Amino acid sequence: MFESIFHKQLSVILLVLVFGYACTDLNEVVYDQITEENFNPTGDDIGALMAPAYTPLRGMKLGWYSFMDLQGETSDELVTPVRPNGWYDGGIYIRMHTHQYDMFSGMHNSLYGNAFSGINAANRVIYQIESGVAPLETGADETIAELRGLRAYYYWLLLDNHGNVPIVTDFSDDTLPQQSNRQQVYDFVVSELNEVMPLLTEEIGPSTHGRFTRWAAKSLLTRIYINAEVYTGTPQWDAALNMANDIINNGPFALEPQFKSNFSLTNENSQEIIWAVPYDELLGTGNEYHMKSFPPIMQRIFGMQAQPWGGNAALPQFIDTFDEDDGRLADTWLMGEYADPETGEVLIEFVNKIETLESGVPQPYEWGYSPAKYEVPIPDARQSTSTDYPIFRLAEIMFHKAEVMLRNGDAEGAAAIVNQIRARNFDPFGEDKMVTGADLLGGSSYPYGYVVDGEIAEYEGGGDIVYGGFMDELGYEFAMEAHRRRHIIRFKTSSGEPVFTAKSWFKRRATHSPHLMIFPLPESALNTNTNLKQNPGYN
Hints:
mainly alpha; 41% helix; 7% strand; single chain
């Protein structure tokens, strides 16, 4: 226990150096920039020097209008219905759910701003090092490589979500940048990662926790290659397999025996996590997802210091795909009755049902399953918690390997990997809980269709989804980790259309509109840079 606390404190010290303090207001004056007058660096100051480039990650991942919201609420996983305590918010959550998002407001605009905030900060620090404003006695090349790798991650976020964005690498160039297309952004990110790879550290431990290492670069390349057909039209399955094998065979990672160890208050000790965003409830704030997901009454039930706002919930159709014996169900969602700790009176019941968006508020005790994957300290939880957000973990890399094997015809080999990951979530894990190659090749169990008054009025089902069984397994493992939108864009129906546009769920009808698979560029970006053209379909 003492060793765990010591490592957490050490990580927090490094976190403050590397991440600074989160800022979600892009117009706020930034006071953590390095200038020639206030910084005389040595090799021991590298963390502080890089701090501004890492800062946007904290607010982006689990803060307000977070990356988690963007990936979940536009997918078939999550929704924020109107609640007794609000959450209409000008209809923004309804627009995200029904895919009527626009360039004026939304979580996608927040992502765009945070990503370019990180890119600009990385460019600035690289310029300061290269120009001699902030000279380093040692480690300059390695520091620049790390910043370029981190910058490539921000560009991957833009590649995946916005597609056609300007590539900016020179902080001293004050001309308006030209817009690049999605293929060019893809090529840039892949090239950058391969170029900096040899200079990135392979060390995994407290001193590199939260830092962009060689393993983070390889994990990002694996994720990019597995989605390459979406980004460029050309699959890169074998490249994804080779990179995944490299990480699995040569990396210092292992599956955690307990799934929830990856999302605990001390998950900086997880041997499965490859790269994470570090948080601390006092020194490194920003993990506020419990505030958005827990109903306000949970303050009384859990004895929390902060009263949560209580917004989103799992889509019942998504929950219906889980095996009721799968431990990931209880490890991911609040379910069942919760009572007053003093009187025993049941104050709320989480059931797999939510009222439709038209009818507004849920009925009493029908709140839906609230996300609860990231551990919250009970009692005394504050507005921010100390649970880190895993950007990459070994289970994802193993799933990527299994997916390529499945697509290449080795369904039983893919099933063996999936079962290795499933095993830790069932007690006992017998043959009846194993998946076969045929299961993974078959359709999805997701009951797609449009919902009216809590019932599927226009049933579509998922039987026509190619590799739908495998897509389901991804859903169980990575629910509430900001993966789902990407998955249902990559997997397709038998007609060749991505699930994302082909299927209906809850109050969102199938759009059959491919332009919705990337988000519009923000109005503010278009107004600032006249070289930019809006993504097709949003004009």
